[in-house]
Every structure is written in C-alpha cells, then in structure tokens.
Specification:
The protein has about 450 residues and is an alpha+beta fold. The chain has helices spanning about 1-15, 25-35, 70-75, 95-105, 110-115, 145-150, 155-160, 175-185, 200-210, 240-250, 255-260, 265, 275-280, 285, 295-310, 315-325, 340-345, 345-355, 365-400, 405-410, 415-420, 430; strands spanning about 40-45, 55, 65-70, 120-125, 125-130, 130-135, 140, 160-170, 215-220, 240.
C-alpha cells in the first residue's frame, strides 16, 4: 500500500509526471493494495457437456483437492508472473522441450493430454458456478513450462487442448506447502538452491539492488524471471544469479573453501539435517516480505559484497594487478599463472576482506566496504596478492615445479585456506583506508 500512497504524493507534489492513465475498478484497487493476485475462472465441463472433475479430501477434512481437465485457453490465464510466486522457476524460454510442447499444441492438440504430465495449482479457495470454478490466490507450483509454452501456441489450437490439473486448496501458512513444492518438482533435476528460490526475501533484495544501483545489479533469483514493470526503463549492467550471490556471501562469511567446491557443498546436510546455507539464511530472513522488516545496513551489506564480487572480474582488474607484479625472469617462472590464481581466488579475497574488517568498528564496516568498492579495490587486490598469494605460490613452485601448469589445482588444495589464515595479518586495511581514529588492532 505504501508504494501506491508514495506515488500519489509524488503526483500531487508535481515531482512525478503522469504519462499513462489506467482505469481500475474498486475491487481491483483493493486487490493491488492487499497484494493479491487476480482470481482465475476455468471450465470443468468438457466440450461434450459432461462433468470433468473429481474431488479428493483427507479423512480429517484438513486438506481438499480437485483433479480435473482444464482447457488450454483457460490455463494460459495463469501465464502472468504473479501466479508463480510459489514456483521455483518461471518460464525457461525456447528450450528444446518447451518448443516441443508448443508444437504439440499447434499440430495435434487433442493428443496433448496424453503427452503432458499436467500442472499442479494451489489456491486459498475454490468456488463453483455454472460449470466453472473460480480460483482465489492461485499459484502454479508445477507446470510453468507447460503454461508458458501453451501461451506461445496458436490461440485457436489452444482451445482444443486439455491439460490434467491437480488443484490443492491450502491457506498461506499451510504446514505442507514446502513439501508440495519440493515433491511436485522431484521428478526433474532441481539444484538445491532452487528449493529456496520462491522465498519472498529474494524479491526484497532484488528490488533493493535495482534501486540502490539504478540498474547496475539485478539479482536473478529464479530461472526465467522477468524485470518488474516499475523497473522496465532501467538499463541493467550486470545480472547476478542467485547461486553466484550465495557462493559469494558464503565465502565472505568465512567459508571460501566451501564456495570453491560449489553449491552442492553449501546445501549438503550435516548430521542434524542442517546445511551451511541454513546457518546464514534462516527461515526468519527468507520470510522477509518488505524492506521495512530488515535494516538498511543489512541490505546495503549484501549489495556492497555482491558489487565487489562482480567488480573484481570486470574491467580487467585482476589481469592488470597480475601484469603489474610481473617482472624480469620471474615473469616466466614464479609469477606464471598468477592471473589464473587471482581469477580463482575471488572467494578468498572476499574472505580476507571480511576477516580484516571484523577487526574494525562494526558501525563503520559498510563505510569501509563502500570506500574499497569505489576507490581502493585494485589496491586491496594488489596487497592481498603481494602479501599472501605470491608468497604461497613461490613456496608451492619450490615444492612442485609441475604445479605451474595447473594453477587452479593450487587454489583448490584443501590446505590453501590454512595457509591464507597464517598470512592474514599482513593485509593492513588501516593503512589502505587511512584509518587513524579506530583503536582496533588488526
């Protein structure tokens, strides 16, 4: 509601110019204010006039469901992004499988039902009226590719398509919602992070990224997700996948060696059924639906860390630092591979940064992060390279000259983090940041 109110104030003050006029009904305005999706109507009587619906209910009456055939032209009413908030993916574009779905609808629509697995929809309420049902607060939890592929098919042919639909009636806080999403998608290969991609926090973080950087960073937290309409005029400079964000933050938080192993290590359960991801992103954090429920400092921290991670790989920064350190005969020996080492050490650079900043005043850490990002990132990378990576690299070559041809292996070595830890104090951020009043010892 706040967004609409602020917009009206801007218009009233003359700071916002109206370029388009859209007329909304009273019911539509209430729906937008309450952040509700538009109800969807679908027929459950087939083309021959026969009923096409089967009801199911648990013995205790807690859960109710409908199994029915839905016509293709009714199903594509659900193709808008607002109906996929609980789905782990959005439409994946023109993949080979999606093209086949569209071709089937266009060429043999009456056989579509036999070839397709159907869709699963959850809603808060189902109302029946004259051979139709109205779904309130509908969300597609499985079948995104089917719906978006049908939306690209011939509108005339789609009328002849029937799709098997499982409609589950649940309230927003249902205790089985997460398992419904998980088990309905278990037949496909789903990476661990995707089971968390439908949490509202990512949308809050994405909007903060877009607004803070005026489009410099866009967090792609769900495959195929589109840019919200209110940001459509932004020029997006960098798209960061949710996996990249998670790996970078895990490294910054103290586990660069886990980030180097990839997302599977982050989502690997321990003996108590918990993962490293769970320890950094609790359910309380993931359930945040508005930036009013999280501090500006926390949001800014996420933004700055991601920005630093991205910038280290842009503008040839790592390559320039490596070239600057090359000299004389060492160019062919000791320093050979240092550019590759830096490229594979971005996670360790984030880890070093966090370790050193932890020794400084907590209230100023975002200011220090911003200063490094905007003015001193190159100097920071150079200090780390001179005092940690080059030193380690020289020792490694002495022990095994063959390692020169395999710099990535050197960084992935299990003992690498221990060796980095031994040299951390050589990285002096006080001098780098011109800190004189901070009494911390680093």
């Amino acid at each position: 509601m706040k967004d609409y109110y602020e917009k009206l104030v801007e218009v009233a003050n003359g700071s916002e110019i109206i370029t388009d006029i859209i007329v909304y009904s009273e019911a539509e305005i209430k729906r937008l204010i309450n952040n509700e999706v538009k109800p969807v109507m679908a027929n459950f009587i087939n083309q021959k006039g026969k009923y096409n619906k089967f009801d199911y209910e648990t013995s205790d009456g807690r859960y109710k469901a409908y199994i029915m055939n839905i016509r293709g032209d009714d199903l594509i009413k659900l193709s808008k992004q607002e109906y996929f908030n609980e789905n782990i993916r959005f439409g994946l574009g023109n993949s080979k499988i999606n093209k086949n779905i569209t071709e089937t609808a266009n060429n043999i629509p009456e056989l579509f039902w036999f070839f397709n697995n159907g869709v699963t929809i959850i809603c808060s309420e189902v109302k029946e009226h004259a051979g139709s049902i109205i779904l309130k607060q509908a969300q597609v939890v499985n079948g995104a590719q089917t719906i978006h592929s049908l939306n690209k098919a011939s509108k005339e042919q789609v009328k002849s398509v029937s799709v098997l639909a499982k409609i589950l009636v649940l309230d927003e806080n249902s205790d089985i919602l997460d398992n419904i999403v998980r088990y309905n998608n278990s037949q496909n290969k789903i990476d661990g992070w995707q089971f968390y991609s439908n949490r509202p926090f990512w949308q809050v973080l994405r909007e903060y990224f877009l607004e803070k950087g005026n489009g410099y960073l866009d967090l792609i937290y769900k495959a195929g997700i589109k840019l919200p309409d209110k940001y459509k005029n932004l020029t997006i400079s960098n798209k960061v996948k949710l996996t990249e964000f998670i790996l970078a933050f895990v490294a910054y938080s103290g586990s660069p060696e886990i980030s180097k192993k990839g997302q599977s290590a982050i989502f690997k359960e321990n003996g108590q059924g918990k993962t490293l991801f769970d320890s950094l992103f609790s359910e309380e954090i993931l359930s945040i639906k508005s930036k009013e429920n999280i501090t500006e400092n926390e949001l800014k921290k996420y933004y700055l860390i991601t920005n630093i991670y991205v910038k280290m790989d842009k503008d040839n920064l790592l390559k320039e630092v490596a070239n600057e350190l090359l000299s004389g005969n060492e160019k062919k020996q000791v320093n050979k591979g240092i550019e590759t080492i830096l490229k594979h050490s971005r996670y360790y650079l984030l880890y070093i940064l966090k370790n050193r900043l932890d020794q400084l005043e907590k209230d100023n850490r975002n200011l220090y992060l911003q200063d490094i990002l905007e003015n001193k990132l190159r100097d920071f990378v150079k200090i780390c390279t001179e005092n940690i990576f080059l030193d380690l690299w020289k020792e490694a070559i002495k022990q095994d000259s063959n390692i020169i041809s395999n710099a990535p292996k050197f960084v992935k070595n299990s003992s690498f983090k221990n060796e980095v830890d031994k040299r951390l104090r050589k990285v002096d951020l006080k001098n780098l940041l011109n800190i004189k009043n901070d009494n911390s010892v680093i």
